[in-house]
Write a structure and sequence with these properties.
This protein is of the alpha+beta class. It has one domain. It has 1 helix and 7 strands. A hairpin with a 6-residue loop joins strand 5 and strand 6. It is flat, with a radius of gyration of 17 Å.
């Protein structure tokens, strides 16, 4: 299985995924949004005013809105299946 995949015009790096989520509550937020969370990463930068090195945690997410919940759920399953296959081959 390739590490980088594209499903429904959404390209993700399977090696960096932490979670794949779909809002299951119709009364809270938009239920048709698929969210893919990547593992956090640490970035170090030098503050130009203090000359000190500062540590920042970067948390990246990718979201895609679908026209209906069923389509979003279908693509969620596709991503989860690909991610599972990738982890099993790793």
């Amino acid at each position: 299985m390739d590490r980088i995949i594209t499903i429904s015009s959404l390209t993700v790096d399977l090696n960096r995924i932490r979670a794949i989520k779909l809002n299951n509550y119709s009364n809270i937020g938009n239920p048709n949004v698929l969210t893919i969370e990547y593992n956090s990463r640490i970035e170090y930068t030098k503050n130009p005013f203090t000359n000190e090195i500062e540590k920042s945690e970067i948390i990246e997410t990718i979201t895609k809105e679908y026209p209906d919940f069923e389509t979003a759920q279908l693509h969620q399953r596709e991503f989860e299946d690909c991610w599972k296959d990738y982890l099993n081959e790793k």
